[in-house]
Design goal:
Blueprint lengths: L8 E7 L2 E7 L8 H16 L5 E6 L11 H5 L4 H20 L4 E5 L3 E2 L1 H8 L2 E5 L4 E2 L13 H8 L1 H9 L7 H6 L5 E3 L2 H15 L4 H11 L6 H15 L3 H8 L4
Parallel strand pairs: 2-3, 3-4, 4-6, 5-7, 6-8
Antiparallel strand pairs: 1-2
Helix pairs in contact: 1-3, 3-4, 3-10, 4-5, 5-6
């Protein structure tokens, strides 16, 4: 089910200790600030929910998984404070995913750009289809993927991060992303992917919840400084978005 609501949608369904968290937005599942905040808060809530053993993160529809941050908001930023606040949206979500006590399984069914790649990287285990190409296009408009870079680098390595960011105009296919560590498994169809996700998550829920929580903490070791780091990165992006270069680049996208 799709949505035409300006602020997007967020739904959670809990069944057999599995929380399926689905976001959506008519603009290719992009994120306005208010939707990012809702997602951040919901992940924190599910982290403390004793009826939840793990989370599946997915988006609505059959096309793009996530087009990143809302361009409509990005275009209208006109001061440093608002710029930093805007780019802090994905920082809040990534940090919520990082400290969440429950494993987060990503269901990446389609193309993913910018902040969407950051979400995929912050998942503890990600399934994808062949349609799940990825791109970090931020440099092409005069900014950079500074906030999500730590999550991408942690999962894929510095070389892959460099290749994605510097080739800002290039799509990388799902098998390239799997080879670099972003995706654990890639499937020909959504049907095949969903079948395997069901089997995988059912198995995970049979494990000791305490052991899963402890394992997640180990997987995210050495990231305690991320709240400050991502805030600093958001400030860098917030400043760059006010530059003449970026303003000129963004003017082409005005409706």
């Amino acid at each position: 089910m799709s949505t035409n609501r300006e602020n997007g949608s967020l739904f959670t369904n809990i069944d057999q200790k599995i929380a399926t968290l689905e976001f959506g937005h008519p603009a290719s599942n992009s994120f306005p600030s208010v939707l990012l905040k809702r997602l951040e808060d919901e992940i924190h809530s599910l982290s403390e929910n004793k009826d939840v053993a793990l989370i599946i993160l997915k988006s609505e529809g059959e096309k793009a998984f996530c087009a990143g941050a809302s361009f409509d908001e990005l275009i209208n930023i006109d001061n440093l404070e608002d710029g930093k606040k805007f780019f802090s949206g994905f920082a809040g979500v990534i940090n919520a995913m990082r400290v969440c006590k429950k494993p987060i399984v990503g269901r990446i069914h389609g193309k993913t750009v910018g902040g969407g790649v950051g979400l995929a990287a912050a998942c503890d285990y990600a399934f994808a289809t062949e349609a799940a190409s990825i791109k970090l296009s931020e440099l092409s408009i005069g900014i950079g993927p500074f906030v999500i870079a730590p999550a991408v680098e942690r999962k894929m390595g510095t070389a892959a991060l460099a290749e994605l960011t510097l080739a800002a105009h290039e799509w990388k296919n799902a098998y390239w992303a799997k080879e670099k560590g972003l995706f654990a498994r890639v499937f020909e169809s959504t049907k095949d992917m969903d079948k395997e996700i069901s089997l995988f998550t059912e198995k995970l829920t049979s494990y000791n919840p305490q052991a899963l929580t402890e394992m997640k903490q180990i997987l995210w070791k050495d990231t305690d400084h991320w709240p400050q780091l991502l805030e600093e990165r958001a400030a860098v992006s917030g400043e760059l978005v006010l530059s003449d270069f970026t303003k000129n680049a963004l003017s082409k996208f005005r409706k």
